[in-house]
Design the sequence.
């Protein structure tokens, strides 16, 4: 009996189909590179973040996480500082940041493009003072003979016809606006200022618009500015805007201050109603100011402001202008005349036949007794005098 032949031997002797190379498959030749492996999958974002968030202690990643944590808390502190602390610490700056963007002026302007009441300002960066367009019109300048508190220099009352539309700043030039002018032009404001010294103004060599003898913010009207300073500011505004900025004439000033009213003040006749409309010598001033005299009759109301108030703190007049009575006396273009005999009737400044070099101030200031803040009230000073009660607002000519 013969044993069956082992299968393995048989298989080895006769190569099977499975061992034979496929006729169509290419054969690697000697020295060729091995076939490429598929690329490893790209690491996912988690693979980057995880080692940072959960690093092994002591490693470089742990250090990175520490800095990450510090950065997070620092950023949070910055946000807190900007949002919560800044409004208390630098309220003026925050107000500036959050103010709406200025209205763009039309490319080609004509007075007719601006209906009366239009608010505009000329700088695209929003730093120019707001103006209000006032209508052309007629009014009776000066006070009637029977007006309480009247002075002789307010007559004769006469009609003035202003045949053109123009724009005027809706508020007095602020300390912040004046600071920008001084910073850019290096305008010299040295030489001292007359500041309140108990019962009158006294020249103090070291005083100026930055130090008028009481505390102010950038929103308060600038004071301790002369007529010459106001002219320099107007030139600067004209240069930077390409428009014609100037002091208003005395007639223009009274026209816009009255805004159609014929009463002692733009809101009526009563001194004791002043506190809602104007910052003048009131009970707050009388009680809080050193040197208030017994025979000075304060308005019998209290506005909480001993010195200047932020502009636009009180109600505006019929043209939308603020602080035309009180807060700061306002320079006008005209030189001083003792009365209106021979005064121009067309709204132009009166700069001939001057009594002397002094220029007219209008409106009364924060320390003024009520009669001085009447719409017809007048005062004057030398063009180089700086006083802690005097500021200004400008007019802007509109192309006819
Ligand atoms: Ca007051």
Sequence:
């Amino acid at each position: 009996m013969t044993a069956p032949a082992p299968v393995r031997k048989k298989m080895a002797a006769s190569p099977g189909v499975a061992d034979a190379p496929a006729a169509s498959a290419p054969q690697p030749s000697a020295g060729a590179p091995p076939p490429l492996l598929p690329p490893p999958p790209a690491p996912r974002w988690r693979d980057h973040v995880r080692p940072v968030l959960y690093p092994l202690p002591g490693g470089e990643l742990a250090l990175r996480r520490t800095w990450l944590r510090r950065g997070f808390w620092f950023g949070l502190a910055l946000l807190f500082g900007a949002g919560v602390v800044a409004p208390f610490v630098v309220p003026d700056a925050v107000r500036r940041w959050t103010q709406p963007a200025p209205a763009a002026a039309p490319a080609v302007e004509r007075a007719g493009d601006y209906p009366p009441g239009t608010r505009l300002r000329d700088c695209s960066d929003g730093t120019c003072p707001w103006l209000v367009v006032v209508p052309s019109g007629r009014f009776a300048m000066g006070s009637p003979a029977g007006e309480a508190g009247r002075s002789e220099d307010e007559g004769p009352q006469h009609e003035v016809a202003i045949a053109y539309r123009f724009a005027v700043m809706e508020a007095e030039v602020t300390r912040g606006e004046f600071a920008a002018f001084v910073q850019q032009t290096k305008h010299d404001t040295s030489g001292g200022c007359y500041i309140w010294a108990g019962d009158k103004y006294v020249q103090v060599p070291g005083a100026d618009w930055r130090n008028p003898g009481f505390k102010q913010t950038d929103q308060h009207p600038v004071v301790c500015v002369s007529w010459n300073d106001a002219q320099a500011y107007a030139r600067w505004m004209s240069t930077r805007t390409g428009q014609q900025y100037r002091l208003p004439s005395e007639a223009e000033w009274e026209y816009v201050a009255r805004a159609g009213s014929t009463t002692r003040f733009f809101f009526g006749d009563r001194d004791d109603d002043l506190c809602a409309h104007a910052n003048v010598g009131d009970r707050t001033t009388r009680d809080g100011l050193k040197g208030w005299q017994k025979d000075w009759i304060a308005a019998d109301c209290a506005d909480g402001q001993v010195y200047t108030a932020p502009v636009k703190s009180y109600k505006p007049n019929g043209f939308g202008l603020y602080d035309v009575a009180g807060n700061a006396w306002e320079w006008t273009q005209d030189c001083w005349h003792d009365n209106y005999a021979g005064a121009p009737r067309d709204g132009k400044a009166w700069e001939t036949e001057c009594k002397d070099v002094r220029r007219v101030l209008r409106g009364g200031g924060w320390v003024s007794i009520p009669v001085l803040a009447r719409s017809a009230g007048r005062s004057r000073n030398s063009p180089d005098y700086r006083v802690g009660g005097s500021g200004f607002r400008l007019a802007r000519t509109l192309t006819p």
